[in-house]
Amino acid sequence: MSAEHAETTHQEHSHHVVSVSELFITYGALMGLMLLTIAFAFKDFGAMNNVIAMVIALIKATLVVLFFMQVRKGSKLTMLWAAIGFIWFLLMFGIMSDYFSRAWIPVPGWESPTTNQK
Amino acid sequence: MSVDAISTTHGLVGHDDHAHHDPNQAHQFEDMAQQNESYIVGMWSFLVTEIMFFGVLFIAYSLNRLLHPGSFIDAHRHLNVWFGGINTVILLTSSLTMALAVRAAQLQSKVAQLVFLTITILCAFGFLGIKTVEYTHKYHEHLIPGANFHYVSVGAEGGPSAEAAVNPEKSNIPQGQAQIFFLLYFFMTGLHGIHVVIGIIAMTTLFIMIKFDHPFTRYYMWVEMAGLYWHFVDIVWIFLFPLFYLIPGK
């Protein structure tokens, strides 16, 4: 708590000074999650492998945004901006539905192995 | 004049009165909290455009991987998990030291800022060094997309699979699909690498300014801005690493 006290007595109150222990705990969690994602990659969960890898990556990205980029202590406007980036990306991902809603035109030499066997 | 009139009616401090102001405060802001928020939201606006910039590439990746899953699994075996893993450790560490540099800037500790910026810059160079080794291997293996691209399938153990080594044309992975994988690999990691280089330039500039006590560096926000950018670069790699190096499958 002494660190917290030092922060409040610091001359400038307009910004929050991040605590060192918070940064190191975040770092440890990121490292652990990285080892976890490598370990899972060597096991076969079928289609779930991709889901697991992306969920872990999302958790890591969220940790970086909240603690390293200090959005956790940021203003509401900062939080909104950080969320907008992610939401807008998901909207853009909707473009994918267009590709899967129409027939594919085969290009010679670029077929998938399964179409070759037909 | 009308601006002054509005300020007065709102009971705000006129911009000629600097006596009680933080010396870092610019005229157009009411207080430091508003100024800090403006800088941070401004930087986040830039980062949102960066998410869009990288976003389309992630969509291109997803689309092609869904269309050619077998080729992506086969092609990704050319990438070394350990190089990718070490680079992940390096970038995560550099993000930690960058966050510590921001903290040092907030506390106006010159020595700590210089030390943590130096470690961050060294990590960035280490990352680029390993990437250079990887790119050089790909060049010798003819895996750079273009006229000399020649894909040979490797077995799950890492060595060339017996059939593919004898006759690459017998490989059931079309050259075009393997080339898409490596095109995306070089485009996305290359664009990320350019961002790392820009980060090195930004951090080196800050290092020099802090070293020689440039007046700008009395305001912690410049290091904070570089920090936000650097953490973004780290986040991009957090997604690139599993997508290219850790594709599971037989």
Radius of gyration of chain A: 22 Å
Largest sheet of chain A: none
The count of β-strands of chain A is: 0
Unreliable stretches of chain A (pLDDT < 50, length at least 5) are: 1-12
Which overall shape of chain A is indicated by the principal axes computed on the Cα atoms?
flat
Count of strand segments of chain B: 0
Ends apart, CA distance between termini of chain A: 70 Å
Biggest β-sheet description of chain B = none
What's the rounded overall pLDDT mean of chain B?
86
Structural classification of chain B: mainly alpha
How many alpha or pi helices of chain B? 8
Oligomerization category of the chains in this entry: heterodimer
Fraction of helical residues of chain B? over 70%
Strand content of chain A: under 5%
Which chains make the largest contact?
A-B, 58 and 62 residues
Give the SSE string of chain A: HHHHHH
- Tally of alpha and pi helices of chain A: 6
Question: How does this model look, in words?
Answer:
The complex is a heterodimer of chains A (118) and B (250). Chain A is built from six helices and no strands. Chain A is an all-alpha fold and 118 residues long. In chain A, helix 2 (20-41) packs antiparallel against helix 3. Helix content of chain B is 70%, strand content 0%. Chain B is built from eight helices and no strands. In chain B, helix 2 packs antiparallel against helix 7, helix 4 runs antiparallel to helix 5 and helix 5 (110-140) runs antiparallel to helix 7 (175-211). At the A-B interface, helix 2, helix 3, helix 4 and helix 5 of A face helix 2, helix 4, helix 7 and helix 8 of B.
